[in-house]
């Protein structure tokens, strides 16, 4: 190492010490109890983070290199960064203080569980400009956080906290099904982020009425290759107490024309409570099919037309049918993977013909959360070779 490098490192160390002193003074005013604990642990003149910072930067250099393309490719109008791995006590004021020296912070938002109010351990920081946000990413990512023995984990946000969200689908995402009831956003995020550094966010879909998980969610990535790897590698991996089922999340793009099947049935027909089950094992009975769907709600009827390789399950409530489509699409019933979509109620005024007449006109719709959905697989869709199917995008 030459003299120039040593001098630059010395100056960086001085800047780091100054920043730590400033931030520790602020922390002492905002969190006196925690500051007292820190003073008991360390001599005030000793800054223990500097050497740890060097070691961490050395260890995570490949990670930062992996994220390089992602950072460079962020839109010029994006001025919001994602911050993750937050501890429960790290609130908006603390995160604001971490970046206060930049003088560029516009707003800070910590994401919290709607039911418990507990932090989901990540948030968003908006800056005055794209350049300011980019400078923070380059300077802070991987360095140690003040008054906490852990490094900053930063990335470009997938949307701005100002009302300027990009179109859904701008980031590669996957659908995650068969989630255990205790899986939270944070647990789902950590399950994937521990293997794929470009993970930006994770969301478990909950029933707005009960606050309970619907058993599925979505994970967003910053890198297409990592998303593809997760599709191949995470199917069947346990999250909490159950193995996950992975599928492709496709953007829900509004269309000026509604999609109809050959009987004129709209995907958005709010009266429909019947689920079409395609690719059904011929050995499956009505009772076995009912047993697969009964966990999702009260069932009116189950029908398996002879020799058609399909079935129909009618629920009392449409919301239960939606949950069943999300939870069982692609699941194994009998010995075959089934494909689910909306059917038509037998009492539909357009036609009172038998359920089996819907077979040829069935279509495969999309359901979703915040702009993302899980497409049903069209009959004969090609396999991608790993046991899952490529999802058609319309």
Compact description:
The protein is an alpha+beta fold and 394 residues long. The chain is 30% helix and 23% strand. Its main location: cytoplasm.
Report what the structure shows.
The chain has 394 residues and is α+β, with helices and mostly antiparallel strands. It has 3 domains: 12-156, RRM (RNA recognition motif) domain (Alpha-Beta Plaits), CATH 3.30.70; 173-251, Alpha-Beta Plaits (2-Layer Sandwich); 274-370, RRM (RNA recognition motif) domain (Alpha-Beta Plaits). The chain is 30% helix and 23% strand. It has 10 helices and 18 strands. The protein has a 6-stranded antiparallel β-sheet, sandwiched between helices. β12 (299-303) and β13 form a beta hairpin. α1 (3-30) packs across α2 (32-41) and α1 runs antiparallel to α5. It is elongated and about 80 Å long. The chain starts with a helix and ends in a 19-residue tail after the last strand.
Tally of distinct domains = 3
Q: Which structural class is indicated by helix and strand composition?
A: alpha+beta
CATH topology of the largest domain: Alpha-Beta Plaits
Major sheet summary line: 6 strands, antiparallel
Described by the principal axes of the CA atoms, the overall outline is elongated
**DSSP, total strands:** 18
Helical content stands at 25-40%
Q: Which regions contain 5 or more consecutive residues with pLDDT less than 50?
A: 30-73, 159-169, 252-268, 349-394
């Amino acid at each position: 190492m030459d003299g120039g490098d040593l001098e630059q490192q010395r100056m960086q160390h001085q800047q780091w010490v100054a920043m730590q002193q400033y931030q520790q003074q602020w922390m002492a005013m905002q969190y006196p109890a925690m500051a007292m604990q820190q003073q008991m642990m360390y001599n005030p003149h000793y800054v223990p983070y500097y050497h740890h910072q060097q070691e961490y930067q050395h260890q995570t250099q490949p990670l930062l290199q992996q994220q390089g393309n992602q950072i460079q490719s962020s839109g010029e109008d994006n001025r919001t960064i994602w911050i993750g791995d937050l501890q429960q006590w790290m609130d908006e004021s603390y995160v604001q203080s971490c970046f206060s020296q930049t003088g560029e912070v516009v707003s800070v938002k910590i994401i919290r569980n709607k039911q418990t109010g507990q932090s989901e351990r990540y948030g968003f920081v908006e800056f005055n400009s794209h350049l300011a946000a980019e400078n923070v990413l380059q300077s802070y990512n991987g360095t140690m956080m003040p008054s906490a023995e852990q490094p900053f984990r930063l990335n470009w946000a997938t949307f701005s906290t100002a009302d300027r969200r990009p179109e859904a689908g701008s980031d590669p995402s996957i659908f995650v099904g068969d989630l255990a009831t205790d899986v939270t956003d944070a647990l789902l995020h950590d399950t994937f982020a521990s293997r794929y550094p470009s993970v930006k966010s994770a969301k478990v879909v909950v029933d707005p009425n009960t606050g309970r998980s619907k058993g599925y969610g979505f994970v967003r990535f910053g890198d297409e290759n990592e998303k593809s790897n997760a599709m191949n590698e995470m199917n069947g991996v346990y999250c909490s107490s159950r193995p996950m089922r992975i599928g492709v999340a496709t953007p829900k793009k509004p269309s000026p024309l509604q999609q109809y099947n050959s009987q004129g049935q709209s995907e958005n027909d709010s009266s429909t409570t019947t689920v079409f089950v395609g690719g059904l094992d011929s050995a499956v009975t009505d009772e076995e099919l009912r047993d697969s769907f009964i966990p999702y709600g009260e069932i009116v009827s189950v029908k398996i037309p002879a020799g058609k390789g399909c079935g129909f399950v009618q629920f009392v409530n449409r919301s239960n049918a939606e949950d069943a489509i999300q939870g069982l699409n692609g699941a194994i019933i009998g010995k075959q993977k089934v494909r689910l979509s909306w059917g038509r109620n037998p009492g539909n005024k357009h036609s009172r013909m038998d359920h089996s007449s819907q077979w040829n006109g069935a279509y495969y719709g999309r359901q979703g959360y915040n702009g993302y959905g899980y497409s049903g697989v069209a009959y004969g869709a090609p396999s991608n070779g790993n046991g899952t199917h490529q999802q058609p995008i319309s």
